[in-house]
Amino acid sequence: MVMKVCCHSNMVMKVWACSSSLQSFFPLIRDSNRSLDIFDEKIHPLTREKVPEDYYSVDPEHKLIYRFVRTLFSSAQLTAECAIVTLVYLERLLTYAEMDICPCNWKRIVLGAILLASKVWDDQAVWNVDYCQILKDITVEDMNEMERHFLELLQFNINVPASVYAKYYFDLRSLADDNNLNFPLEPLDNQRATKLEAISRLCEDRYKDLGKVTIRRSLSADNLVGVRTTHAVLS
């Protein structure tokens, strides 16, 4: 019971720090909204609710970002470490694709980053269809297509060296310290660092192989047979 409470506390704190870091990606003065249609929520809505006309101009509050990220992490039972890998992929996407994170695309970009991070890091894999049970108005075809674009924009670079993980970890811990909050998660030990690097390299190789033979078909990490064997079923 104590272990469950501790793990939950780690997850909540890491999601808080992750959402705070995400908010920092929104520029104080926006002079551009570089995005792609696949991430535009008006073109590919996550819910049946009508997207407001000013959806592209109003930055989300921190509590909205936190609520969205926490819902995904809690429902999919993701680990606290997965939040760090999520940030790695998200910032890598913005850099590689020369995109801006903005009100019209942040939810789908975050969803795509969490989707990949959960498959690379978490022992209990959560597949695309499982996220459709969390976000009930999105189709698995849309999830697969978004994931394919995300991977291509990352140039299939999903490797996370221990040094990169450590940088993001200490950045988040500094953010928590600046807000006088306890940051309970410990840095990666050697065993976990080796595991992260090995799994992310394996997934990257598998993604690249799949990309060569599925150029005109939907590419999804759900096809990575042998990398993950446990299929999480969410009620």
From TrEMBL:
InterPro entries to which the protein is assigned, alphabetical: Cyclin-like_dom (IPR013763), Cyclin-like_sf (IPR036915), Cyclin_N (IPR006671), Cyclin_Y (IPR012399)
User: What keywords would UniProt list here?
Assistant: Cyclin
Residue ranges occupied by any Cyclin-like domain in the UniProt entry:
67-152
Note the superkingdom of the native organism: Eukaryota
Keyword Aminoacyl-tRNA synthetase listed? no
Tell me which Gene3D superfamilies the record gives: Cyclin-like (1.10.472.10)
Cell wall biogenesis/degradation is among the record's keywords: no
UniProt cross-references to PANTHER family, sorted A to Z: CYCLIN Y, ISOFORM A
Family, per the entry? Belongs to the cyclin family. Cyclin Y subfamily.
Provide the protein name.
Cyclin-Y-like protein 1 isoform X3
The opening ranks of the lineage are: Eukaryota, Metazoa, Chordata, Craniata, Vertebrata
